[in-house]
Amino acid sequence: MFWCTGVLVHLIIIELGGRMTKVKFQVASRRRRKKVLKKAKGQFGGRSKLYRTAKESVQKGMYYSYRDRKQKKRLFRNLWIARTNAACREFGLSYSKFMKGLGKAKIILNRKILADLAVNDKKAFGKLVDTAKANI
User: Fold this and answer.
1) pTM of the entire predicted model
2) Which of 1-10, 72-81, 104-113 has the weakest average pLDDT?
3) Domain enclosing residue 4, as ranges
4) Helix (H, G, I), strand (E, B) or coil at 48
């Protein structure tokens, strides 16, 4: 038995009767790699060309996108609360007292709508603040 790679391969082919071994799962492997490289398209350098680095980059990107979809909801809620609070303070009321007053008045508006009213329709928001003050 020879340890030279070329000779060893040649001997194996001769032992098998002139034919090489069957390649299994080749189509599936190629399809899997192409899928990963397609997701990594547009990334810099080897991240879009080399399978191993592309796979790592795609995995991390998928993790970030999952995490940030959850975080986006939190950030927008914080933004809406901050906008509503700023508008409430213009009318001399804190956010927590405003929300308590709306709850007692049985006015059910979500924070997104309240923030939109605070920014775009001051008159309507002022009426809500007056209602909240009356019900504290």
Assistant:
1) 0.70
2) 1-10
3) 1-32
4) coil
